[in-house]
Amino acid sequence: MEVELSIADNPLSIPPQALFEMAARINKKRGFLFVSKVLGKHIPVHPLKPLLASGLLAMEHAERTSGAVMDVKAEVAAGLLEEDHESVKKAYDLLKQQRIQLSESPIVIGFAETATALGHGVFDCIEDAAFIHTTREALQDIHPDLVFEEEHSHAVDQRCYTGGPVFASEGPVILVDDEITTGKTALNIIKDIQKKHPRKAYAILSLLDWRSEAHKEEFRKAEAELGVTISTTALLSGSVAFHGTTLDQSSYDYEPEGAARNVSVRQIDLGEYFTALPHAAEKTGEASFVKETGRFGITQHDRGDIEKACQKAGNRLHTIRKGKRVLCLGTGEFMYLPMKIAAFMGEHVSYQSTTRSPIHPSDRERYAVKNGYSFPNPEDEAVKHFVYNLPKQGYDEVFVFVEKPVTQKSLRPLLEICSDRNIENVTIATFSKGSDSHD
Predict the structure, then answer these.
(1) How many CB atoms neighbour CB 312 within 10 A?
(2) What pLDDT sits at residue 286?
(3) For each of the chain's 439 residues, which pLDDT tens digit applies?
(4) How far is CA 304 from CA 230, 283, 309, 322, 399, in A?
(5) Which CATH number fits domain 264-288+295-430: 3.40.50, 3.30.300, 3.20.20, 2.40.30?
(6) Are 404 and 377 in contact (CB under 8 A)?
(7) Where does the TRSP domain lie (predicted)?
(8) For residues 431 and 269, is the Cβ–Cβ distance under 8 A?
(9) Do residues 180 and 115 lie in contact, with contact meaning Cβ atoms separated by under 8 Å?
(10) 3-state secondary structure the chain
(11) CATH class of 2-243
(12) Topology match between the domains 2-243 and 264-288+295-430
């Protein structure tokens, strides 16, 4: 397969190769994938880099819609391109000082699964904002406030459980995604919101925007039909043309290669720093979720508490880490809190997350996904997860963050993967005391 790209707008002059590489999806609907190098999903990153990307999106949006001048934007953009810990942290400290005040208080929505943390990072930067992220979780006996389709995805149904008056205001909605190729997913949720919680303005923030002129025309039609404005902001925009045949299966073997070696496993519970949502468990019979993820909605009043909780949790893990080179691994939609905690765990810490997305690995130069493993999600073994780009000798220790209770048995496939990658120490960081002990 071949993908032709043409860059039309690069407002911050960020080299495209610093933002993404390409890979082949195992998906009949769309054969290719832009694999972000700043998102912390399929490629490991410094844990503050996704927050810098979020900040750049928030600042670009503010400048385009309000005319405000963001003094630190150039320094933050420069920090996104750095690799050393001090430079990245310095850029993030500058970002935290740049508060963004929009003309109306917005509702920020991050798209699951890939952009839950990216959206949360945008929310962090904007005063008087509310935040919620969509989810692929189908909760029994709880009716979702929004339901829409992500048409190109392997798992098309998306939902939003507000759990509170998130949409009570008529302020603008800011949708955040890692990339938009056709924009259909964004238009689907806008139409559902407008039907149930009408308002006047929407904005779409994405790292990459590859919509064609025909797709942009669909946006203009939607604006006229719904009587709203829909603005877009991206770090890189252009056009894409695909030639070739899509993959409906991969010849790659996602299983560990050798016999499992001994892995030192321990568990630490971080639930004391965060807020469980027992009402969800009571209604569904399922495990509690963590409020601070934003899955059920959070506001500016929660922001300071989330920062303190992540700092306390990160400091605690920093004191017990054994490895010099550490990977912090989020699970699925559970991205922001593990990433933020990882940022407080000292130097030589990388962050990425597991994913539902099946991607074809190939150990070739300039190909984004060198290797991959599949395993049952420890929190829901009916759902297959993948983890990509684990080097053979890259890490001394891995911290795996799980939101819901897990058992030793459910973790075994993931531990076998760690063993295959010569990772000797694994720490399971839980957020619910219902998990089995590994001490």
Answers:
(1) 16
(2) 53
(3) 889 999 999 999 999 999 999 999 998 888 899 999 999 999 999 999 999 999 999 999 999 998 888 999 999 999 999 999 999 999 999 999 998 999 999 999 999 999 999 999 999 999 999 999 999 888 877 888 888 776 544 445 788 887 567 888 889 999 999 999 999 999 999 999 999 999 999 999 999 999 999 999 999 999 999 999 999 999 999 999 989 888 988 889 999 986 667 899 999 999 999 998 764 444 444 557 899 999 999 999 999 999 999 999 999 999 999 999 999 999 999 999 999 999 999 999 999 999 999 999 999 999 999 999 999 999 999 999 999 999 998 999 999 999 988 999 999 999 999 999 999 999 999 997 645 544 3
(4) 30, 29, 9, 29, 24
(5) 3.40.50
(6) no
(7) 292-416
(8) yes
(9) no
(10) CEEEEEEEECCCCCCHHHHEEEEEEECCCCCEEEEECCCCCCCCECCCHHHHHHHHHHHHHHHHHHCCCCCCHHHHHHHHCCCCHHHHHHHHHHHHHCCECCCCCCEEEECCCCCHHHHHHHHHHECCCEEEECECCCCCCCCCCEEEECCCCCCCEEEECCCCCCCCCCCCEEEEEEEECCCHHHHHHHHHHHHHCCCCEEEEEEEEECCCHHHHHHHHHHHHHHCCEEEEEEEEEEEEEEECCCECCCCCCCCCCCCCCCCEEEEEECHHHCCEEHHHHHHHCCCCEEHHHCCCCEEHHHHHHHHHHHHHHHHHHHHHCCCCCEEEEEECCECHHHHHHHCCCCCCEEEEECECCCEECCCCCCECCCCEEEEEECCEEEEEEEEECCCCCCCCEEEEEECCCCCHHHHHHHHHHHHHCCCCEEEEEECCCCCCCCC
(11) alpha beta
(12) yes
Task: Report domain extents, the chain.
Answer: 2-243, 264-288+295-430
Supply 429's token pair. Answer: 């960081």
User: Position of tokens 């949708």?
Assistant: 175
Identify whether the C-beta of residue 185 lies closer than 8 Å to the C-beta of residue 215.
no
Amino acid identity, position 165: P
Task: State both tokens at 76.
Answer: 């933050």
Amino acid at 123: F
**Amino acid letter for position 91:** A
Residue with tokens 């490895």: 323
User: Which amino acid appears at position 284 of this protein?
Assistant: T
